[in-house]
Amino acid sequence: MSFTLLAVQTLNGLQLGILLFLIAAGLTLVFGVMDFINLAHGVQYMLGAYLAVAAFQFTGGFWSALPLALLAALACGLLLEVLVFRRLYDRDHLDQVLATFGVIIFLNELVKVVWGAAPLSVPLPLYLDWSVPLTDTLSYPVYRIALIVAGLLVAVLLYGLVTRTRIGMLVRAGASDAEMVAALGVNIRRLFMLVFGFGAMLAGFAGILAAPIFSVEPGMGDNLLILAFVVIVIGGIGSIRGAFVSALIIGLVDTLGRSFATDIARLALPPSAANDVGPALASMLIYILMAVVLFVRPSGLFPVSSK
Amino acid sequence: MKRILSALAVSTIAGTATLFAGVLPAAAEGLKIGFLATLSGPPAVLGQHMRDGFLLAVEQADGKLGGVETEVIVVDDELKPDAALTKVQGLIERDKVDMLAGVVFSNVMMAVYKPIIQSETIFVGANAGPSPIAGKGCSPYFFSAAYQNDQNHEVMGRYAANQGYEKVVVMAPNYQAGKDAIAGFKRHYTGTIVEEIYTKLGQLDFSAELARISEEKPNALFTFMPGGMGVNLVKQYDQSGLKESIPFLSTFTVDETTLPATKDMGVGLYSGAEWAADLDTAANKKFVADFEAAYGYAPSLYAAQGYDAARLIGGAVEMNGGIEDKAALIKALEAAPFESVRGDFSFNTNHFPIQDFYLVKAVKSGEGKYTTSIVEKVFDDFGDAYAGSCKM
């Protein structure tokens, strides 16, 4: 367990955290502001990745594909809002879960019909397709570092947007008490649509960033959706700051846990048992963390005062 | 608080989205085959290859396998053992199929195995070959046109031993097939396994594991990462620079189902297989050409196995002169009266094939086209390790 290994794993953890943050940010806003459970948020991440593939095939370059795919992701989010989600805001959570679950199934099948079941990919973008050598055998792709930087920029931008602008103020007010905001004469429907489209675009952005390093396949968002829910529960529903901090915590705990759980288990157990216990423990870690956080702070780390 | 409870409930049920799809053409007198394959969810591409291979062989026989009018009912097992069980019972009792075929995954195979052999329906497997069925639990009604699960892993173990690799890191997902893969690798490997890494099933990011591997500086990496996991691993293996220094030995990770996604990043990586696109037999040349013409994509070993399964049925039905006498039909199947795309092919005492196994390598075989290519033969006329404990 050398220093470089620890450093690399920390970078990896940050990178997973950033990706989770981009997905969780939209989820926590939609959940917090509109009290709307959107299971289909993970699918929007998948759509982002597929749109990146399509835009890449169309333009032939990652950089020109990026804005195109972002706009398309935004358009898809708005379209879904108008067609489906708008009708669900006033229904209870169970209806929302059922309907958005249906959207997952529909879109997972749709991408299979359009792009086929086989996994697809996007090559690394120009200027970022090289690696920094770390040891004599291992090098770290610059793209992954760029991904962390891009995520941090978005986080700063989002924080400024939420805390410093009028729209952000309305969003925060909506998270505390949507009815009162509406009573004050704010077009809450339009605010919802805006928040929703923006959230979808962020998830799509995560998908676009993920396309060059992960395989683009149907159902790729489903696993991340579960993690994103863990993130927003730990962070406090409706809190961007909470989503950011807890996404980074989850990313680090999951990555470091995966790489060192077996070693730690070996200190106490014989090697064969440690081989069984380590990976099992590693995949449980974040849920144990969630249980502990909920026990100590039932509304999450950064609770938004709510009704 | 209510929100948090909802979120918790949601996170436990999410991620189980799958669909069911079925094809039910009109009934016909003649041979009715129920074909079970995983056609939804992320691994659907494997089922798609297998089904397309099977249907190609039926089509080449003008819809008459062995001269008998053939109807194929394709059913999606959704990769859920319980759903597969219900559908197989439907095929046997409602549709009254004469034979069953297909099945990609071993957990599905184990779930449907009992009802199939209890109803005395002949089954011709086109992929999954779990060890219980090859050993003590073998049945005269079960035939595999593919391989026994351990064998491809054994190929890589033997190859690593032949190469004199002293230190190897092995990595597989933390579930039964992953553990079987590593057990299979160990059977013929004589060096030291310096690290056994078990990853979460469906894991996306392997950077943590890759950092560990580079730390160990092994002579080679052996891995079994089917489907999308393999695509992620191959991409990240290439991007981390490990591809240049540590040979990548794999099974079911680098093949024609994943190469369209990994493209150049997969080129040069090794795999253990009983089939490759450039296997030099007349039947294989025709198969590869016809498959690409019919479906517009390159076939994989799953497609080859599906194709052989249908042609095995065709050959046996023709030899037997029909399907009425089941005992005679089983005898005919045992003789394997067909020309396999793999060349040498005969049945062992446990109805699993005795065949050759190869080290194959991913190559770029044309503009934007990637296939597997044979490097060397590792096992000749190779049977599995369980046939001895099978008493029929």
From TrEMBL, chain A:
The keyword Cell membrane belongs to this UniProt entry's keyword annotation: yes
Pfam families: BPD_transp_2
Organism of this sequence: Roseibium limicola
Keyword flag Cell membrane: yes
One Gene Ontology CC term in the entry: plasma membrane
Entry superkingdom: Bacteria
GO biological process, one term: amino acid transport
Signal peptide residues on this chain, from the entry's feature table: none
Family according to the record: Belongs to the binding-protein-dependent transport system permease family. LivHM subfamily.
Alphabetical UniProt keywords: Amino-acid transport, Cell membrane, Membrane, Transmembrane, Transmembrane helix, Transport
Protein topology in the membrane: Multi-pass membrane protein
Transmembrane segments annotated in the record for this chain: 12-33, 45-62, 68-85, 97-122, 142-162, 191-214, 226-256, 277-296
A single GO molecular function term of this UniProt record: transmembrane transporter activity
Compartmental location: Cell membrane
Name of this protein: Branched-chain amino acid ABC transporter permease
TrEMBL record, chain B:
Pfam families (alphabetical): Peripla_BP_6
InterPro entries xref list: BCAA_transport, Leu-bd, Peripla_BP_I
Keywords assigned by UniProt, alphabetized: Amino-acid transport, Signal, Transport
GO annotation (BP), single: amino acid transport
Domain of life: Bacteria
Domain Leucine-binding protein residue range list: 31-366
Entry similarity comment: Belongs to the leucine-binding protein family.
The protein, known as: ABC transporter substrate-binding protein
